[in-house]
Every structure is written in C-alpha cells, then in structure tokens.
Amino acid sequence: MKKSLSFKVILQQMRLKSWLKNIFVFLALVFSQELFEWNRFLQTVLLAFSFCLVSSAVYVMNDISDVEKDRKHAVKKNRPIASGQISIRDARILLICLIIAGFGLALSVKISSFALILVYFFINILYSKFLKTKVVFDCFCIAAGFILRVLVGGTIIKTGVSEWMFLTVISLSLFMAFGKRRGEMCSYGMRGTRDVLENYEMDFLNGITFMCAGLTMAFYSLWSISQKSNMVYTVPIALFIVIRYLLLVFAGHSEADPTTLILSDKTLLVSCGFYMIVMLFFLYGPQLFGNLI
C-alpha cells in the first residue's frame, strides 16, 4: 500500500526557512517611506508570497534534477526527494502546483511584477540545467535572484529602485554567493555535489568575498548619504553585520549558507534586528512621532 504524503514533509521540501530571502521584496517599499500606504503594502505582501511559492518551486525543480548527487551528500541525502519521502512523481505534481499558485498570485497584482518573477524562474531553469557548473556565472545567477526580488518590490512604488540601492543589493548578493562557495569548499573541498567547486580556487574566493563586502559597504554608504532621513548613522551597524558575517564565513560555519548563518548566530541575528529597529526609526519616526523627535 502506498504511504501517504504528509503535510510536514511537503513543507520541509518547500524549505520555508529559505523564504527569509524574500524579505528583499520589501526593501523598495520600506526605503521609499511608503510602508504605511495600505494598498502598496498589501500588494508587496502578495508579491513576497508569490516569490515564496515560486522559489519553493525552484527548490523542488533543483532537487529533482540533483536527486542522484544529493543521495551521495552527507547532509542533502536527508532531503525529502533524495531520501525517498517524496517520490519523483509527487515532486513533479508539487512543482506544478507551486508554479500555478505563485505565478497566478503575481499576475493578479501587476503584469510587470509577473514578468520579473517569470525572468527569475527562467534564470533558475538555466542555472539548474547549465549555469550551475559554470564558474562565476553560478554566483551571478544567485545574485540575479536577489536583485529581481528587489525589482519586483520596486514595481509597486512610485520611485522604483534607486541606482545606489541596485548596486548595494548586487554587491551584497555576490558577497553572500561567493562566501557560500567558499564555505562549501572548506567543508567538502573539490569533492561533493557541486561540480563547479573544481573550477574555483580558495585564494580567488577569499579575495572576491572581501572585495564584494567592501563594495557592499561603499555603495550602502553612498545610498545612505543620498537620503534625507539620517540613514548615514546606520552605516556603523551595517558594517558590524558585514564584519560579523565575514567572521562566520571564514570560520567555516554551515557551508556559509546565508539563511542558516543568520538564524543560527545570535549575535548576527540580534544585530540584524537592531539595524531594522534603528532604520525604521530614522525612516518613519517623523511620521509616527512628529515634533517629539
């Protein structure tokens, strides 16, 4: 008798923890100081959830494609598809459902938002089938996913995404992507499930990770100076977060996976929370407290 598929296993396959990345959809709304515009806020929430569903579809697609390699991996062998908790047939059904729900939700909000999420999906198809084995291209594909999240959020607001924000997100995304590759190489060397690691050198990854970290802070500082809300005073907090993240990357924690690092390190998690509080105060304090500040 066929074993029924549990809802818990489906949620595990959807990788809800990775939905944290979709907070990037809110960046344009928050930094444009339009967070309290109810219609825009609701549309951004819907787009973020759409991205959650489509990104989960990408994870299912990748796990189907990499199932044989994942079964040889020390950690990935426990994923639902690799471990046999979800059959390939059921995984494909889940993939179709996620695609229909995710794209349908985006289409109900705005056609331009739908188009950008569609671009994200096709980039990930190229990544899964071809680009994940191409050195440097693989990390730029990851970075493209983050900037597309920001651009999708920018379709809702009047001003769109500023040049400095665009450059900051690109640098930050590459910083996390190359840092993740470095962490994977530390954990598995040139062996394991990522063929692309054979084409990377540790010295290159060390240098490019530091370079992207520096560019992230430079672009963020220039963006903060361009604002009229004292955002420049958040630069030291952002610098601390970047340095802490670098420390964890070079300490070889959890293959340097961004979501895992943030959620597992209390100092980094608290620092990110503190940054959000200070940032929101500078952006929205005058609206909320008027002449009191």
Descriptive notes:
- By secondary structure, the protein is mostly helical.
- The chain folds into 2 domains: about 15-160, UbiA prenyltransferase (Tetracycline Repressor, domain 2, Orthogonal Bundle), CATH 1.10.357.140; about 160-293.
- The protein contains 13 helices and no strands.
- The chain has helices at about 5-15, 25-30, 40-65, 65-70, 80-85, 90-110, 110-130, 135-155, 165-190, 200-225, 235-250, 260-265, 265-290.
- The longest helix has 28 residues, at about 40-65.
- It is globular, with a radius of gyration of 20 Å.
- The model has no long low-confidence stretch (mean pLDDT about 85).
Keywords:
293 residues, mainly alpha, Tetracycline Repressor, domain 2, 2 domains
Figure out the total of helices. Answer: 13
CATH superfamily descriptor of the largest domain: UbiA prenyltransferase
The biggest beta sheet is recorded as:
none
Q: What is the overall shape? A: globular
Q: What pattern of helices and strands is seen along the backbone? A: HHHHHHHHHHHHH
Name the average pLDDT: 87
Q: What portion of the residues fall into strands of 2 or more residues?
A: under 5%
Q: How many separate domains make up the residues?
A: 2
- How many DSSP E strands? 0
CATH top level of the largest domain? Mainly Alpha
Shape-level CATH architecture of the largest domain: Orthogonal Bundle
Query: How is the CATH topology of the largest domain named?
Result: Tetracycline Repressor, domain 2
**What is the end-to-end distance?**
67 Å
Low-confidence stretches: none
Q: Structural class of the helix and strand makeup? A: mainly alpha
What percent of residues adopt helix (DSSP H or I)? over 70%
